[in-house]
Amino acid sequence: QVQLVESGGGLVQPGGSLRLSCVASGSIWSIYAMGWYRQAPGNQRELAALVTRGGTTNYADSVKGRFTISRDNAKNTVYLQMNSLQPEDTAVYYCHSRTTTSMYWGQGTQVTVSS
Known about the structure:
This protein is an all-beta fold. The chain has no helices and eleven strands. It is globular.
């Protein structure tokens, strides 16, 4: 089992920045990738960014060049630096981890981009 706890969401004006953090605990040795998904009202949950244990990253086209995912293996933490935020980035952001047999989710953190 893996437990994920997110922090860092909130309200920001268009063009602003936020950094999300997610700390993993439990069977962290089994995790091979961590990342962030997001779900806006009325939409399906979609991948925002993912990073593997080896450091390979994958981004949704809509966030490339604006969001940066990073991972601190010593702290069992993954970060999502979000810059140049736009109203369409408004969503609940969920931390996500993958093992060879399971997927795990955090409770979600709200990000609202509005003037």
